[in-house]
Design brief:
By secondary structure, the protein is of the alpha+beta class. It is built from 18 helices and 33 strands.
């Protein structure tokens, strides 16, 4: 057949098949399309709702961020403005007297301001000569601590005066180790350069060791002396205010200057860094926060405004705006995940989709019910048609069988081939067979077996109780056996291994044949159509076969005589005659002729299987070791492993009369050991064994060391037996059977053609008697 040709089944109605497939497509397709449309509509609504709600949520979030920015601006202004105003008031109060003339007035003003403005930590009054006064809150409730530095005229003196709420002195301390000089501080130096209020950058206060800023204001007395007033404000309170803001779920707000240094941050502890043994204000990019760093980088590139940024796959809303603080170039920066504003939209969408799933499930259920009902209706209609066609075929088959009355004649010894052919065609079985039960249920003999695919018939095959005990027990009990997997059923596992597996059959339907209230045989089909009509036909055939088996033989024929009936008519193999035809004499040969050698050939059918690893080595290694052990135990003088074949021979010595028995024992042991090896690897037994007894030629060949080689008719015939043997089985020739039948169990397999000899019977070696 050409490569491009195809096999077309013309036995069926092609048009009916097309109509059936089109109807099934409509039955299934239309409901599925409806379900798809419903799901598509729900998903479209969900996507539209999510986008619309997200846009609305983002619009609301924009207004919220604007309000937050305004609130922060007002808070910062309210936080910083009192310091600037009180600095101006302090300048106006002490302008005439100064710190050195009347510090009492400055103390009273500073104490009053500290009690009423919580964000101010202290007031500083410094003269150009280095004299200095600092007023801060004291340890006593409502009291103050006054730090006085006299630097001019010398000597330098640093004194702390502690006062209660009424102004009375409650203690005085001197600190000669204090080296503080106000003239070196940023607030002093900056105030000297401007006539207005000067705001410092964030720095760490000398006394409190806390981050803050100072408002400095310069004034000149009438006598020309220069004074500077400083008002310190800590930023912790401003940071606490930022921490109190609720911006979504995880949003944060912070205040930074134009260089990126933190002015206020929700976590005050992160505002300071240790550099060169000094605490300094941290920069934005030193927080190790990828979201804040990304927002600051975008601001430096694009300027102030609101934007969406993507950080690690999460969309963030970033806003940077200028703060209207006089004398300061500060920014308020807010970062918040977009999901904080739109997350509820996604959650609602998920809830809506979850509720929609209920609708989808109901629609799918209704669609499945519709499909099921439609397919059931079509199936019922087909079953009616198929049942009608089956009844028609069965009626025709019964009519045909009625014309073959000889098939049911109890005295007939002709195989019922027409019966098994009809049985196979009507049931569509791979194999149909009629079997007779002999020897009180100890032996099952095949009347006829028909393989539908090859069209071949087999008869006179025998299965003994030793091979299929469970099957024969169930058959003798009158059980009707219907199994989809014969290998998995305890009753049929042996039958599957012995008979069904080589053909590839899987299912079995077996009906006992009853005659005179006892089981006399069986009719079975393998891999038949599973419809009830086929089973009914098998049961009807079993009833008809009962007529043929009504008179069972009074005694079971000996297996040996049954197996070799007619053997005397077969030609006898003669090597001497073959040489004579060629004009040769045995003496003229350069090799030795062995007239009765028993040869076993073990052929592996799957090269990949024997290469499979098991227990750290290939199956081939396990096989070689096993064959060596078995060959040594069975005293096999000739054993070679060549490629995928192993060859064993015995009886080379003329005095060796039990060579065939040792070869049979070798083959049985090898079969069992190799089957176990393949089973351990979870593989089917990928080997076949063939045995023959006959003439062989042998000679030592090669150079040092010379190897003995055996060839000729017996090795060639044993190899042919191995090629055609069942998987995992042992097939022997009739010559080997005649030498082994007294001690080993066989069952007939069929006929085999030998060159220059003709047809000869073959047998399956099952075990030892």
């Amino acid at each position: 057949m050409a490569a491009g040709e195809q096999v077309v089944d013309i036995g069926g109605d092609a048009l009916a098949g097309v109509v059936r497939r089109r109807r099934a497509l409509l039955r299934i397709g239309l409901p599925l399309v409806g379900v798809g449309l419903v799901i598509g509509a729900i998903l479209t609504i969900a996507v539209y709702s999510y986008r619309a709600n997200s846009a609305g949520a983002l619009a609301l979030s924009s207004d919220l961020l604007d309000n937050l920015e305004s609130r922060i601006s007002l808070q910062v202004a309210a936080y910083l403005d009192p310091a600037a105003r009180t600095a101006v008031l302090a300048r106006d109060i002490v302008r005439d007297g100064g710190v050195t003339d009347d510090r009492r007035l400055a103390e009273v003003f500073a104490a009053s301001a500290l009690r009423r403005i919580p964000q101010i930590t202290d007031y500083s009054f410094a003269a150009q000569g280095g004299n200095y006064m600092q007023v801060r809150r004291g340890a006593a409730p409502g009291g103050i601590d006054v730090k006085l530095i006299r630097n001019d005229p010398g000597p330098r003196e640093v004194r702390w005066v502690h006062k209660d709420a009424s102004g009375g002195v409650i203690g005085t301390d001197f600190d000669p180790t204090d080296t503080y000089d106000p003239r070196t501080r940023p607030w002093y130096l900056g105030a000297l350069k401007t006539d207005g209020v000067y705001w410092t950058d964030v720095y760490v206060f000398y006394t409190d060791r806390a981050p803050g800023i100072t408002a400095g204001l310069r004034y000149v007395a009438d006598d020309g002396r220069v004074f500077v007033i400083g008002v310190d404000i800590t930023l912790k309170t401003l940071s606490n205010f930022l921490a109190s803001l609720q911006i979504g779920k995880t949003g944060r707000a912070m205040i930074v200057d134009s260089t990126g240094h933190l002015i206020a941050f929700p976590d005050p502890d992160r505002m300071l860094l240790q550099k060169d043994n000094q605490l300094v204000a941290a920069r934005v990019d030193e927080l190790n926060d990828p979201v804040i760093t990304a927002a600051w980088d975008r601001y430096r590139i694009e300027g102030t405004g609101r934007r969406l940024i993507d950080v690690d796959g999460i969309r963030q809303i970033s806003m940077v705006e200028a703060l209207p603080v006089e004398g300061r170039d500060w920014r308020v920066m807010i970062v918040v995940p977009e999901a904080d504003f739109t997350g509820f939209v996604l959650a609602n969408n998920h809830t809506g989709l979850a509720m929609s799933v209920v609708v989808i499930v109901l629609v799918v259920l209704f669609a499945l019910l519709l499909v099921r009902q439609g397919l059931r209706a079509d199936r019922a209609a087909r079953l009616v048609l198929d049942r009608g066609a089956a009844i028609g075929r069965q009626s025709a088959a019964f009519a045909t069988l009625a014309t073959e009355a000889g098939l049911f004649d109890p005295g007939s010894r002709t195989p019922p081939r027409r019966l098994t052919e009809t049985l196979g065609e009507v049931t569509g079985a791979r194999r149909a067979a009629v079997w007779r039960l002999l020897g009180a249920g100890a032996l099952l003999r095949c009347e006829d077996s028909y393989e539908r695919e090859s069209g071949g018939h087999v008869a006179a095959m025998e299965l003994s109780r030793e091979e299929i005990p469970q099957f024969l027990a169930a058959l003798a009990a009158g059980e009707e056996i219907d199994v989809a997997d014969a290998a998995a059923d305890r009753r049929t596992a042996g039958l599957h291994r012995v008979l069904m597996h080589p053909l590839g059959s899987r299912s079995l339907f077996c009906v006992p044949v009853r005659a005179q209230d006892r089981v006399v045989g069986a009719v079975w089909v393998e891999d038949a159509h599973p419809d009830a009509g086929a089973h009914d036909f098998v049961r009807a055939v079993a009833n008809m076969v009962a007529l043929r088996m009504a008179e069972a033989p009074s005694a079971m024929p000996a297996r040996a005589e049954m197996a070799v009936s007619g053997a005397g008519d077969l030609p006898v193999r003669s090597f001497t005659a073959e040489l004579a035809l060629r004009g040769l004499q045995t003496e003229a040969l350069a090799a030795e002729v062995f007239p009765a050698v028993a040869v076993a050939v073990l052929r592996f059918t799957d090269p990949a299987a024997i290469a499979t690893r098991i227990s750290e080595s290939a199956i081939a290694d396990h096989v070689a070791c096993a064959l060596q052990e078995i060959g040594h135990a069975c005293q096999i003088p000739y054993l070679k492993l060549v490629g995928q074949d192993a060859i064993a021979a015995a009886g080379i010595d003329a005095t060796d009369t039990d060579g065939p028995a040792r070869i049979a024992a070798f083959a049985l042991e090898a079969r069992d050991r190799l089957a176990a090896v393949f089973e351990d690897a979870d593989l089917n037994p990928a080997f076949r064994i063939g045995i023959d007894c006959g003439i062989a030629i042998g000679s030592a060949v090669g150079r040092g060391p010379r190897l003995f080689n055996l060839w000729g008719e017996a090795p060639r015939t044993a190899d042919a037996m191995a090629v055609s043997a069942p998987q995992g089985g042992i097939q022997v020739t009739e010559a080997a059977y005649n030498r082994l039948r007294q001690h080993y169990l066989f069952r007939p397999r069929g006929s085999f053609y030998l060159p220059r000899v003709g047809a000869a019977r073959t047998f399956i070696l099952a075990g030892r008697l």
